[in-house]
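Input sequence (99 aa), recorded before submission:
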Amino acid sequence: MFPIIIRPLAENDIKEASIWYNKTRGGLGDEFLLAVEAKLYQIRRNPKGYQSIYKAVRRVLTDRFPYGIFYIVEQDKIYNLAVVHTSRNPKHWITRYEA
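Predicted structure, token format:
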């Protein structure tokens, strides 16, 4: 399995969403974290098994929560660029790829 490197901005995305969900209902943020972790594990097992949506950027949707995990595969590593609500403007994560 390839290692996943979660970039700082993606880590911040995850933390912010988790905090928001925990404020909405106690423990819901923890459930969100588990949903993200499950998808990251699936990405590690099959990094090229998900749809390419912009150049080399791939996306997988989380179960239960309306979030996309955006990542790229380079040689023997996976880089998590963003974890973004599906209603958010794509420019939010595209700028992270082009940076």
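Checked by second reader. The chain has one domain: 4-98.
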